[in-house]
Every structure is written in C-alpha cells, then in structure tokens.
Amino acid sequence: MGKLSEMKHAPVPPTLEPVQTRRSIHSPTHDPFCPSYHCKMKVLTFLALVISLPFLACSKKTQAPPEQESGKPRTLLLSLRIEKKGNDYQVTIPNSRIIDAPFMGNEPGPVIYRENDFLCFIQDRDKKNLDTLIVSQPLHPRYEFPGEEGAIGSKQVELQENEVLLRFAYTSRMTYLQVHKVEKNKQLKTLNTLKLPGN
Fold it and tell me: What is 71-195's CATH number, 2.60.40, 1.20.1630, 2.30.30, 1.10.260?
C-alpha cells in the first residue's frame, strides 16, 4: 500500500505535459496527438475528395464519344452529281445533311445491277465496305408516255449530267463513298472516292 501511495503522488517529469492537457478540447489543432486534430484532418480530406469528384467525372465524360452517349439513330442525306465528259465521268457531293432520325427505307436485298448503273460503296477509314447502294441508270433514264389506243409507251434517253438523292442509315464509322460505273459484262469502272460529311 505504501508503494502505491508513492506512485500516486509521484511528481510529473518536467519534459512531459499532463495527460489531461493532451486530451483537452482546448489543445492546439496542430498537435498530432490530439483526437480533434485527426477528426478535422479527416473532415478536410473528405471535403477535398467530395469537391474534386465532379471535376473527375466531367473529365471522363468529355472523353466518351458523343455517339455512344446519345445512341440516337441517324440518317445521311446527300445529293450525288454525275457529269459525263467525253469518256470520263465526274462525281461530286454538292449537298449533304445528317439528321437525328432513323432511316426509313426498304429492307436490304441482293445486289443486282446492270450496265450503266452506278454502284456506291460506303467504306470505313480503312476502305472496307460497310454497305452498298445502287443508283439505277442515272444518265439513262426511261420516260413513259401515253401511246396509241391507250397503251403506255416508254423511251430511254441519254443525259450528260444528272443529280440524284441518296439516303442511308449513318454511323460514325462511315468515312468514304466510293463510286463505280457498271460497264459491259458488269465490269466496274472506279470513278472517285469521296469523303462523307463529318470526316
């Protein structure tokens, strides 16, 4: 019992501060042993993380492709101008427009073409075919007219130039429009490779 009494009244070494002072709510905030110091640091760290999260989320969103974010089907409308100059042909795209609407057209069928048709290959950036469009006789249209005894006659004429409207479902992979003319024996003559809008 005597020893316990001596330990209870033993003087505090001068180099150490009292235990109660260390745990007091009035202790300095810079004291690393203070529980309130750790609480404040945790709160500040949490607030800094919460404030930075919106900026991190925004930076990730801007890197995502717009098409993947929207997911809306699109249709490309373009006018294809064809001009015959001697034995050569010139093809251009005077006007084009991409609209946010699904393509309303016929179901794809077999690729059947004949002489004087024009074939349009829709290609990606590596010149791989993604789709095929057939422009039927753009410079050799057939016109119908009323004939004798109520019959309907027709006549095919040859034009030096014409402009046709193309419509197809559009994706960002589509980069080029390669135009060919169908020659005799279904041989293809490459006329031009045009860049599609948006590229």
Answer: 2.60.40
